[in-house]
DNA sequence: ATAAACTTTTTGACAATGTCAAAAATAAAT
DNA sequence: ATTTATTTTTGACATTGTCAAAAAGTTTAT
């Protein structure tokens, strides 16, 4: 995110210290959870309430400035890589998350044959496994 | 599930009224959440505690008798269709969930090129959209 | 610059979904 | 039948997130 201030303006969102800080934090720590973001922001601007973090994350998500992902057994995570069609690799043990470029192509990358009369708008893919660190821990 | 009792025995699980009832309920109401299952069980055997429902669902999931799915913005759901490689279609509006046969083939159905040193064991796919009912509601 | 109008942030309570630990009840094995 | 092991219940608690009203801040218009 090169210019958080411009990004907010582009979406007609009033500029506040909290919004700038949250936006920067999401950018610097992709896939962080709300409370990790809160901690990061506090170290930079002194303080922010839990509720404000949620407010900001929600409004940024609605406007499409950031993206929310919610893997099983984890609080929601946020990233600022939006607009493309990538997926995620999640560690079953520690929750560590990485991006994976789409194996197929454009969104929705998997055709679901318009099953059951549903109108499908997204195919979400999560690859589950063990990250390198946790593989080592197990074998130890 | 034709014979829940045999299924429990096959997995060396002591047979209890609660386990039989939960197993039957998951079978009859695929994709139900824990509290929906609890309600269903109560109508059949009179009473069961919230904790027992969780205990039973957890042990059945660990043993592979049932499968847990956890779509975003929903409590965990359970199904007794296990061992094959199918995915899910989830309604963004009401949470209604249906099975979708895998578009590709065998599990894990998508190769993730062993990215980033992860050891991948599953590719989970969720198709997001609107179910027929909710499509109608919107246009009304 | 200033004031008015609007939005955001804070504060504090609350809801939903799960888990933990110890006591009571039940099933299985001898 | 009795013992042993497991399960169920009971009640407290943790986490993640939301709701509503008051306080503080930002933007717009004068």
Describe this structure in words.
The structure is a homodimer of 140-residue chains. The first copy, chain A, has five helices and six strands. With 140 residues, chain A is α+β, with helices and mostly antiparallel strands. The longest helix of chain A is centred in the middle third of the chain and has 13 residues, at 50-62. The N and C termini of chain A lie far apart (39 Å). The first copy, chain A, binds a DNA duplex (30 and 30 nucleotides) through helix 4.
Task: Summarize, please.
By secondary structure, chain A is an alpha+beta fold.
Mean pLDDT of chain A: 90
Q: Mind summarizing the main beta sheet of chain A?
A: 3 strands, antiparallel
Helical fraction of chain A equals 25-40%
Tally of discrete structural domains of chain A: 2
Distance between the termini of chain A: 39 Å
> What's the overall geometry of chain A?
globular
Oligomer: homodimer
Low-confidence stretches of chain A: none
Overall CATH architecture of the largest domain in chain A: Orthogonal Bundle
**Could you say which structural class the secondary elements and strand pairing of chain A correspond to?**
alpha+beta
One letter per element, helices H and strands E, the order of chain A comes to HHEHHEEEEEH
**How many helices of chain A does DSSP assign?**
5
CATH superfamily of the largest domain in chain A: Winged helix-like DNA-binding domain superfamily/Winged helix DNA-binding domain
């Amino acid at each position: 995110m090169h210019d958080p201030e411009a990004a907010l303006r582009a979406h007609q969102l009033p500029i506040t210290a909290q919004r700038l800080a949250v936006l920067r934090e999401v950018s610097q720590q992709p896939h962080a959870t709300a409370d990790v973001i809160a901690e990061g922001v506090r170290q930079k601007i002194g303080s922010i309430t839990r509720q404000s973090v949620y407010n900001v994350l929600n409004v940024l998500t609605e406007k499409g400035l950031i993206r929310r992902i919610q893997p099983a057994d984890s609080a929601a995570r946020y990233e600022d890589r939006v607009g493309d069609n990538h997926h995620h690799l999640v560690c079953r043990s520690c929750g560590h998350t990485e991006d994976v470029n789409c194996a197929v192509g454009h969104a929705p990358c998997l055709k679901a044959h318009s099953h059951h009369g549903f109108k499908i708008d997204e195919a979400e893919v999560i690859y589950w496994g063990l990250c390198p660190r946790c593989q080592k821990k197990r074998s130890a």
